[in-house]
Automatic annotation (TrEMBL):
SMART domains: PKS_KR
Family recorded in the similarity comment: Belongs to the short-chain dehydrogenases/reductases (SDR) family.
Keyword terms, alphabetized: NADP, Oxidoreductase
Listed name of the protein: Ketoreductase domain-containing protein
Annotated source species: Phanerochaete carnosa (strain HHB-10118-sp)
InterPro entries: KR_dom (IPR057326), NAD(P)-bd_dom_sf (IPR036291), Sc_DH/Rdtase_CS (IPR020904), SDR_fam (IPR002347)
Upper lineage: Eukaryota, Fungi, Dikarya, Basidiomycota, Agaricomycotina
PANTHER family: 2-DEHYDRO-3-DEOXY-D-GLUCONATE 5-DEHYDROGENASE (PTHR42760:SF5), SHORT-CHAIN DEHYDROGENASES/REDUCTASES FAMILY MEMBER (PTHR42760)
Alphabetized GO MF terms: oxidoreductase activity, acting on the CH-OH group of donors, NAD or NADP as acceptor
Keyword Transcription belongs to the record: no
Length: 261
């Protein structure tokens, strides 16, 4: 692994000249991360569903003077996922950073949880991430540089309630992050993950709309509030930049203190 550059501290966080491929950036945490990476100097390729007409993230990145490209792909279509990385390279050139932020949630009691929902959650939240990580490794390892950032969950550590597939996928994604780091750190490719706590996004709208669960969760967060998408701007830039050069296989928890309690 290359050593951390001996440059002024703030320069360590610069992403000037870097190209990023990110999923799940049309809204929420992914959107906040995509904008932060562009603000740090990166050009960005966004993976969006073919049916999406949301260009807000791309428009905002272009307004910053950075390039924003879009690759259309439904992450539940695994055959299509296999071609995403190559298409991003065609649009931007070398990819220096991969961010796997796209995901879905399905809620139901375990005795009622359908096989179709199980398969969809595992495919989108785990297998699609694996396929993109593998493609990134094939691209980055020969070049001996790259950053991969996966998005895990508190359910990487905990079981949750009525979300068995999501917990299984995120638990596995945490282990996949460590497994890839063990292989690729020596190749100067850092693989890490960000672990969000309870964040006020549409994925948690059912919890936010349930007064009892909202109170139970809120009372347990030491910071005294739910997280917001912008809380991930700094962690994303850190893990994408040279500032995290010696950070390998880390699951960075951003949860307002939930896990500490």
């Amino acid at each position: 692994m290359e050593k951390t550059p001996a440059v002024p501290a703030l320069q360590l966080f610069s992403l000037a000249g870097q190209n990023v491929l990110i999923t799940g950036a049309t809204r929420g945490i992914g959107q906040a991360c995509a904008l932060a990476l562009a603000e740090a100097g990166a050009d960005v390729c966004l993976v969006q569903r073919p049916s999406s007409t949301n260009t807000a993230t791309a428009d905002a990145i272009r307004a910053l003077g950075r390039r924003a490209e879009i690759v259309e792909c439904d992450l539940s279509d695994l055959e299509a996922v296999k071609g995403v990385f190559a298409r991003a390279v065609e649009k931007l050139g070398e990819i220096h950073v991969l961010v796997n932020c796209g995901g879905i949630q399905r809620r139901a009691p375990a005795v009622e949880f359908s096989e179709a929902d199980w398969d969809e959650v595992l495919n989108v939240n785990l297998k699609a991430c694996w396929l993109l990580c593998q493609a990134a490794g094939q691209h980055m390892v020969p070049r001996r540089r790259g950053k991969i950032i996966n998005f895990c969950s508190l359910l990487t550590y905990q079981g949750g309630i009525t979300v068995p597939a999501y917990a299984a996928a995120k638990g596995a994604l945490g282990q996949l992050t460590k497994a890839l780091s063990n292989e690729w750190s020596k190749e100067n490719v850092q693989v890490n993950a960000i672990v969000p706590g309870y964040i006020a996004t549409d994925m948690n709208e059912k919890l936010l709309a349930d007064p009892a669960r909202l109170r139970q969760i809120s009372e347990r967060i030491p910071a005294g509030r739910w997280g917001e998408p912008h809380d991930f701007a700094g962690p994303a830039v850190f893990l994408a930049s040279a500032a995290s050069q010696y950070v390998c296989g880390e699951l960075l928890v951003v949860d307002g203190g939930w896990m500490g309690r």
